[in-house]
Design goal:
Number of strands of chain A: 14
CATH class of the largest domain in chain A: Alpha Beta
Organism (chains A, B): Campylobacter aviculae
Strand content of chain A: 15-25%
Largest interface: A-B, 38 and 38 residues
Shape of chain A: elongated
Distance between the termini of chain A: 31 Å
CATH topology of the largest domain in chain A: Cytidine Deaminase, domain 2
Helix content of chain A: 25-40%
InterPro entries (chains A, B): CMP_dCMP_dom, Cytidine_deaminase-like, DHFR-like_dom_sf, Eubact_RibD
Bound molecules: zinc ion
Domain CMP/dCMP-type deaminase (chains A, B): 1-147
Protein name (chains A, B): Bifunctional diaminohydroxyphosphoribosylaminopyrimidine deaminase/5-amino-6-(5-phosphoribosylamino)uracil reductase RibD
CATH superfamily of the largest domain in chain A: Cytidine Deaminase, domain 2
Pathway (chains A, B): Cofactor biosynthesis; riboflavin biosynthesis
Oligomer: homodimer
Number of helices of chain A: 9
Chain lengths: 327, 327
């Protein structure tokens, strides 16, 4: 069953893939001493609780609904350490990445597990990050069993975006097509898919689009569906910026920087576009995010040869989406 | 969490969708008295154990690996009733369909739950079948808590093929396309997808294909990937059967009936074909089974307007497949 529980942790983490930037996506499942599932949670956003603390606080609320918990991660960590009443004695955790052992924006998760009396921690991938690593050693020193390598390949797939943006630049291409492969123009995917795309827009350093998209779709390119910050833009076009109709909504966003080439400081960059844009840039992309509706239609398809290997696929309403590497 | 466990039961049942013909697809999750997951199982094939017995025997083996169990469903049922040593006392089950209360090819599942001392049974959909219904009442009479309606809509979706073939005819269209919507000819999908399709072929009453497919692909249309029985065929073509090259492998299958119109006795009928076949028959289909690879290519797509609503989607290796209704 350990693979089953790790898969639950991985699935939960993938739901927040990209949204945790600049942190890695991490998932955590907690079982009580009788192996009842108490929580399946993930790290959701930089600055919020790590996956482990998020799962533990969810379990705490379930076991003691009468106690209200502080919201802020440091205060939450301290409160749980003081008020756990041994409710996690003998508990088991499945974490997709080795728990951190350093005080960052939040206190170390390895310490939290040991304070609460966890019996065993299953880990998918060892943390190689110089600052955060060593959680497994810490746990063992404090008498907690640790087992590495559960669904390790899948755990490493989950970390791919993080390892890229941590070392330099991570480039993601977003494409939305019908089930029969045709780009449907401005609104192709359903509200759930577009909300996920807006959440990504709200955390990236730069959104790259082509002049064609701007002229045809006259888009806003903001993050309104999640009430997030509109991303800075880079417009790649043969035409000068001044040549575009300045009434197109994307030019009206306050405090937005608009570039015509990619600034070096941008580490997480999303490209959005159709067939031509994909053709021009597919070879420099790290990953592809492809939304596909459940509609067969009678429009021409995208005809670009591209062998993709899915790292993850899921559904958002009636849409399918996948995160792919090119082969 | 009850929806979470029911979803696990539903997911497991969908893996065997169509393969249980003429029985319904049913899934069952068993938790012990401490709510630890003991089994996630489904009914896999007519004649084999019902989902409930399959899950209970899986859990039995896990708890008592030293005891070897009989294989045949009736013997298995009896053996477990005699040797359970109260290991299921206080256990909980999640079943996607009300447990049967009648002696069919196998003994009633409701009786099994009560003999083993289960505490509570969660059920998605009430069984309206005159022969099998009444399991919930039976359980309550024997002091077991019963709760109906957990993920009922999803449970009803799972039963749609069964309700069709039970009342008359069920027609399924199988299509395999690339991610960019083009039918790739004979082999489009990967081995896992084709094995699932072959398993379906091995249980259906009739496979319907067009003359075009036969002339171009020269197929065998058997169920070799699952070592199953090759289905009877109906060839819909303007040309007479005698006009086809009789060396095409499909004509070499021993004991295969080949029709030129659909015999009335056929209740589960699968149509396989490409764009033209889909265009001609889409309006008379009950459901669509669509395999989609993870490849964008430069071939023309299927251009048939068809709004589909997914009942279920999953992955088989790098392929996606979905079971859809037309809207
Ligand atoms: Zn941490
Ligand atoms: Zn039964």
């Amino acid at each position: 069953m350990k693979e089953f529980y790790m898969q639950l942790a991985l699935n939960e983490a993938w739901k927040y893939q990209f949204l945790t930037y600049p942190n890695p996506a991490v998932g955590c499942v907690i079982l009580d001493k009788n192996e009842k599932i108490l929580a399946i949670k993930a790290h959701e956003k930089a600055g919020l609780a790590h996956a482990e603390l998020n799962a533990i606080s969810y379990a705490f609320k379930k076991l003691k609904p009468e106690i209200s918990l502080p919201k802020e991660a440091n205060a939450l960590h301290d409160f749980i350490c003081k008020n756990h009443q041994n409710m996690f004695k003998g508990a088991i955790a499945f974490v997709t990445l080795e728990p951190c052992s350093h005080q960052g924006k939040t206190p170390p998760c390895a310490k939290l597990f040991s304070e609460l009396g966890f019996k065993k921690i299953f880990i998918s991938v060892k943390d190689e990050n110089d600052i955060a690593k060593g959680g497994g050693d810490f746990l063992r020193k404090h008498g907690i069993e640790v087992e590495f390598g559960i669904l390790e390949k899948e755990g490493k797939d989950l970390l791919k975006p993080f390892l890229k943006w941590q070392k330099g630049q991570f480039k993601l291409f977003k494409l939305a097509i019908s089930m029969s492969g045709s780009p449907l123009g401005k609104i192709v995917s359903n509200e759930l898919s577009r909300t996920y795309a807006h959440k990504i827009r709200s955390v990236i350093d730069l959104l790259v689009v082509g002049g064609e998209t701007i002229r045809i779709d006259k888009p806003t390119l903001d993050a309104r569906l999640c009430q997030g910050k509109a991303p800075d833009l880079c417009i790649l076009s043969r035409n000068k910026l001044e040549s575009f109709d300045q009434n197109i909504p994307l030019f009206k966003i306050p405090n937005r920087n608009i570039y015509t080439e990619i600034p070096e400081k941008a580490k997480f960059i999303m490209y959005e576009g159709g067939e031509n844009f994909l053709k021009n840039f597919k070879n420099e992309m790290d990953l592809f995010l492809i939304f596909q509706s459940s509609i067969l239609n009678n429009k021409k398809n995208v005809t670009i040869p591209l062998n993709l290997k899915p790292l993850y696929k899921n559904f958002l309403g009636s849409d399918t989406y996948g995160i792919y590497e090119s082969e």
